[in-house]
Amino acid sequence: MNYIDDQVVNEFIEESNELLSSIEEYFLELDSSTEKDKTDLIHKIFRAIHTIKGSAGLLNFDAISDLSHLMETLLSKLREGLIEPEAKYIDALLSGSDKLKIMLEDVSKSSEVDSSEEKETISNFLDNINIPGNLNPKKNTNFKSHESYENEPIIPIPKFKKPDFISDINELIKTIIITFNNKFNDLQNIFLCIEDKKSFTNEEKVKIIRFCDLLINVAKYTHKKNIYFVLYILKDITNKIYEQDIVVDDELIQFYFEVVTKTNTLFEAYDHSDETDISELIRHYGLLTGKLQKENVQQQNQLIKKEENKLSKKENIDLNEKSNTSLSPKKEELNAEKHDTVRLNINILDKLMRLAGELVLVRNQQLIKASSSLFDDREIIQRLDSITTEIQESVMQTRLQPIGNIYSKFNRTIRDIKRKLGKEIRLDTSGYHVELDKSIIETLAGPMIHIIRNAADHGIETPEERKKLGKPVAGTISISAYHEGGLINISISDDGKGIQPDKIKSKALEKGIKTQTELDSMSEKELINLILLPGFSTSDQISDLSGRGVGLDVVTTSIEKLNGSVEINSKPGLGTTFQLKLPLTLAIIPCLIVLSNGYRYAIPQTNLEELVSINSDSKYKIENTGYQEVFRLRNNLIPVIRLNDILENKVQFDLNTQAQIVEKYSKIDQFQNNGKLNFAVLRLGNNKFGLIIDQVLGTEEIVVKPMHSALNNIKIYSGGTILGDGQVALILNIEGLAKHCNLNFNLNLEKTKEISEKNQVIEKESVLIFKAGVDEQYALALPFIQRVEQINPSSIENVGDKEFIKFGDKTLKILKLENLLDVSDTMYKEEMYLIIPKHINLPIGILVSEIIDTKELLINLNTQSYFEKGILGTDFINNRLTLFIDIFQLIELFDPAGVHKVREEIVDFEINQEEKNQIRILLVEDSSIFRQIVKSYLENDGFNVDVAKNGKEGLLKFKKKNYDLLISDIEMPIMNGFELIENIRGSKFNSDIPAMALSSFGSEQFIRKAHESGFDFYEIKLQKDNIIKRIGHILRNYINPELESNKKLLSENSVKLIGGNS
Amino acid sequence: MSTNDSISQFVTFVIDNNYYGINILDIKEIQSEFSITPVFHASNEVLGFVNLRGQIYLIIDIRVILGKEKIQKTEFDLVEEKLVIFKESLGDPFGIIVDHIGDVEEIDNDMIETFKSLTDSKNEDLKNLSTLELVEGISRLDDKLLILLRSRNLLNTIENKH
User: CA-CA distance, A148 to A143, in Å (whole number)?
Assistant: First the structure.
């Protein structure tokens, strides 16, 4: 009993909802339909509301039946012609049906919904109508029925009965032409459909019928027989194509196009249209329509006569048209539709879908078996194969619905907006027939309405503004849907004011979403796409329609839930386009199947941008920023992650893991895999990144199965699927992968550029790795080491608080790191080591407990994270954080007095600190260790030092600032020191700057070459004291202003190259 | 069938020479030919996914739950080990792998010792299991001790991990 009740109620709800949505469409059609259609539509609406009222009464839903009763009464007045379907009535009825919808959402509580407002409005109308004096008489002129607030130039075409009724015929012709032109868009769409030889959707059918109606109405109305003929032919052919009465071939399309063109020409020369000869066209038409030829010719002859003689007797022509009159197919169509559809529970479809999936698997197993079986069996299996495929496709289709189904909702949105904002907006839609999964269609409506509202509210200007800008008064929002690359593309564009990147910038700053530097490095497109972020709304004032604090991020979220993506393109002043990309269905998605760690994974095609394969001999390489591997993809630096490492590391990456991975791959050959490295470029919102995989296996349409609930916490997968061979494969969640890897897309451009350039020529440096305390690992560049001695710690002698050791005839002062640096104490062992540094004129040895290795490494010195005097910076060696020793600073810390004394001995000049501060030195050096060392000892001495990593960078910096001295390495990537100095000497700016070459080479030939290239001086890199001395010399003689005369003299005569103190 | 309310049927199986029982009403099917796709990032108890007739099942390594060594192989081709698949009423589809399947035992409900008397058991497996609320009870058969598992709680052992 209860069950039956429930079922009845459910049916009532479903039926009423369907009726209500059709009512809404009818109402909207009312706005733009002919008089005859209007009566028809009102009848339909009336019947629908009547049905709802009846059922609701039967089931005792009083609130629903009360409201619908009132609506019905108002509709009956409309039906009787007591009132015209004016906007206010339609508004009232629309809000009434909205209320009914709300009530239907939860019928049991429908009586709690407050509908007093709607009821009152309708009652008021009814009261007014019932007062006889206030009766709204039906107007004779049909043109007036057009609503005043809507300036849509669609004019209802009156039934033409008496031609002399119209006094100003020319005025009317104009309106007809305007109408025709307006409908021309529809015509083009139909034409496109015909060209595609596709079948029409219901929506298109209705359009065609309406179009035919219009054609014949226009035709009836004109006094020009040629125009009448072409329109008649156009209508007839359109109708025939629609009825599938005629073969659509190239000839027909050609002809159709001819007719359309002719129609246009005739309209253009309206007054003289009858002077054109169209007999050829008519003959062609006769031929094309084949067996109807004779009848048609006769008919046409008849028509011509009638047209010429008895224009008033149009009814006859109507009779003649009976065979293909526009109204009858429409009715048939509607009737047919009722019988052709069955309401099905979606669960049954889902089950069918799953079963079809299983069938495919069984089929696949059979196929594998068949390959080794008898020939006879194969035939059967092949049939099974094709039938299974067909079943699967048909089942899939049951869930597909044309996107046109939601377009109708947008008309309503636009209508609301037009009224509220007083804007003129035209909605242009195409691609009705593009089909999408039911569940996607349902979810899609919300975000699309959001975008449309946004476009109408923020995008399109007011009519006044548009006039000023020289744009058409009515703004256009066009929606189109189409297939591309196995995905559904939907673009929603407006011709409004577009998005101002500057506005976005200031908003992002104001809201603290991005920093100035981040913003500066972003492209215009990236800026625009910022509006998709949460908490972003650029509208200056919050309006009722959009910008209720809910930003476009809602759109992004819901589209991404559907495995789709959103992109915005905008041209200030011209308009904005939202581009949505979606999979056809959620249940079956095209995926790229890849191999990693020996297992297969699926990457949804929606996320896939491209595949990149690099060979070992290619100039392209994976580079790194120390914490992140990167790849330069057509001048865009994208982060690159490795699926194998992601899978193996369960814990979300931190900087340490990232550094380890980078370290790991910088050591091994990148191309172990057949000399190839494959990665997929994936899109995540507006960012891209690379995912390195072992192998690309191909693309496959996979059936998505949701992730097991027990594993929902694993973010790197979005589901599972079963591949053709019956194995389970997991679908990767791109966002999850990026999060897991702690991906940072704001790669600082400057920094990354420098990294990649540096890596073009791989710079390796030899270091000694050792330990002193328990914790730290140290490294010291080999060129700074004279030798390493093994010692017995017992032979260390203490003098006061100092320790010494004797070596032959020399006594070395022992330096212990923990005394100078904030590090753990040196461990004492039986055998210890003493590192004796080079280029230090003091007898010092560094005591260490363990020598680990000497290595030639790619060093990427991090000078930011660890800052202490005596330490150059840090890097990872053998997965361990390693401190790089600054030997000069260390010695200075250890024995300041000794260092000073040595300096006094060799430096025979003194420049005061103030002068030093004003001297700008440009240091060009590729090795990060030497760069850091030379810079730090020059800076310690009080000079201003700028650095550059190679000749090219050096040259750029040189041109920007007026430097007093250039110090440059010779061997450098991209541009070496010789090229640099040649460029400088050849330039116009500061070309006579004193320049000192630093190198580890000391041969005569080399020195000469340095001289010839334009260097003034030459020093061995590591001899700090000599360098300082040389700088002092240069400063005294060249730069010091008082000695200006000297400068000239010296630079002309006494340039002497000094080749070190060997 | 002539079973009365006080008799339950249990499917018995062996893991590391211990006997376990699962109520036959919880079991959907038993498979001996399957191939597992491992799930990286999943907790240790998860062996992976198996496809059976278009349905994906999560396979739990009950050995890990019992504190034993994890199963290493992923291919099972008509072997001694069996895949026990549970009914959908217990949650999202899942199954466990056992060393081999024994007889179906009919046990009088009165003969089942309940959980409370087990907490101080000397049997390590039992202790492990009882802390996870996985033991329905135990029953003494002629020559062996049968541990009756509460299959409903198997999935929780993974879910609770997180």
Answer: 11
Closest chain A residue to B158, measured at CA: A710
Give yes or no for residue A42 having a pLDDT over 90. Answer: no
Report the pLDDT value the prediction gives residue A917, as an integer from 0 to 100: 73
- Say whether pTM exceeds 0.80: no
Nearest-angstrom CA–CA distance, A493 and A479: 7
pLDDT number for residue A681: 92
- What integer is the mean pLDDT of A964-971? 83
What is the ipTM score, two decimals?
0.88
Which residues in chain A are contacts of B41 at CB distance < 8 A? 647, 650, 714, 716-717
| Half-sphere CA count of B144, side-chain side, radius 13 A | 14
Bridge partners (DSSP) listed for residue A602: A593, A731
- State both tokens at A123: 């009652």
DSSP 8-state class, residue A132: G
Read off the pLDDT band of A732 (50, 70, 90): very high
Contact state of B51 with A722 under an 8 Å Cβ cutoff: yes
At residue A508's C-alpha, the angle toward residues A502 and A510, to 5°, is 105
Task: Check A708 against B49: CB less than 8 A apart.
Answer: yes
Option in A357, A599, A647 nearest B37 (CB): A599
Give A292's pLDDT tier (boundaries 50, 70, 90).
Answer: very low
Let me know how long chain B is: 162
Q: Does B35 contact A727 at a Cβ distance shorter than 8 Å?
A: yes
Residue A910 confidence class, pLDDT cut points 50, 70, 90: low
Q: How far apart are CA A54 and CA A968, in angstroms?
A: 95
Tell me the count of A-B CB pairs closer than 8 A.
67
- DSSP assignment of A618-672, as one string? SS---EE-SSSEEEEETTEEEEEEEHHHHHH--SPP-HHHHHHHHHHHHHS-TTT
pLDDT in tens, B49-88: 998 877 899 999 888 888 788 888 778 877 788 899 999 8
* CB atoms A728 and B49 under 8 Å: yes
Q: Provide the token pair at A517.
A: 């530097």
Q: Residue B86 has what pLDDT?
A: 92
Residues A648, B40: C-beta atoms closer than 8 Å: yes
pLDDT at residue A291, rounded to an integer: 39
pLDDT-based confidence at A453, cuts 50/70/90?
A: confident
Whether B90 and chain A come into contact, CB under 8 Å, resolves to no
Average pLDDT over chain A, rounded to an integer? 73
Rounded (10°) angle between helices A1024-1034 and A896-906:
50
Q: How far is B90 from chain A (nearest CA, A)?
A: 12
When comparing pLDDT for A1013 and A238, which is higher? A1013
DSSP states of A701-734: EEE-BPPPGGGTT-TTEEEEEE-TTS-EEEEE-H
Least Cα separation, residue A724 to chain B (angstroms): 11
Q: Is residue A729 scored above 90 in pLDDT?
A: yes
Of A654, A675, A668, A676, nearest to A741 by C-alpha is A654
Helices (H), A961-1037: 977-986, 1004-1013, 1024-1034
Sign for the CA dihedral angle at A885, A886, A891, A897 comes to negative
| Beta pairing partners, A966 | A922, A995
Contact A466, A472 (CB under 8 A): yes
Contacts of A713 in chain B (CB under 8 A): 162
User: Residue A635 in contact with residue A747, Cβ under 8 Å?
Assistant: no
CA-based nearest residue in chain A for residue B34: A727
Cα(A853)–Cα(A848) distance, integer angstroms: 13
C-alpha A239/C-alpha A247 separation (Å) is 12
As to burial, measured by CB atoms within 10 angstroms (0-12 exposed, 13-18 middle, 19+ buried), residue A553 is middle
